[in-house]
């Protein structure tokens, strides 16, 4: 998906500033509706997770809930757009090296 978007640094900074009004370590004010903005936001959120570490769903939910109240929407986006991998039974989540987490 990253190849679909050409994201300039200034655009990325503007989007992050508009959606994280209290800074990148604060909560997300609203989850954007536009795909490009979602991608920018997700690429920032995924940095909260460690590459290679296996998480259970509760850990993922708890971390995402500190960022945005509708953590399920954010989690779904992270999975659907391959920022994060989920086991077939939905009990484990992780980020592989070389995915969005390192960009």
Record the SSE blueprint:
Layout: H1 9-19, H2 35-45, E1 55-56, H3 57-65, H4 71-80, E2 85-86, E3 92-94
Antiparallel strand pairs: 1-3, 2-3
Helix pairs in contact: 1-2, 3-4
Q: Mind explaining what this structure looks like?
A:
This protein has helices spanning 9-19, 35-45, 57-65, 71-80; strands at 55-56, 85-86, 92-94. By secondary structure, the protein is mainly alpha-helical. It has a 3-stranded antiparallel sheet with strand order 1-3-2. Helix 3 packs across helix 4. The two termini are 12 Å apart. The model has no long low-confidence stretch (mean pLDDT 89).
Keywords for this entry:
globular; 103 residues; mainly alpha; Arc Repressor Mutant, subunit A; 3 strands; 7% strand
C-alpha-based Rg, rounded: 13 Å
| Overall pLDDT confidence | 89
Largest sheet, in brief, is: 3 strands, antiparallel
CATH C-level:
Mainly Alpha
Strand % is: 5-15%
CATH topology: Arc Repressor Mutant, subunit A
How many discrete structural domains?
1
Shape: globular
Strand tally is 3
Figure out the total of helices.
4
Q: Quote the distance from N terminus to C terminus.
A: 12 Å
Low confidence ranges = none
Specify the structural class.
mainly alpha
**Strand sequence of the main sheet, in spatial order?**
1-3-2
Q: Give the SSE order as H and E letters.
A: HHEHHEE
Residues in helices, as a percent range: 25-40%
The CATH architecture category equals Orthogonal Bundle
Describe, in short, the structure shown.
The chain has 103 residues and is mainly α.
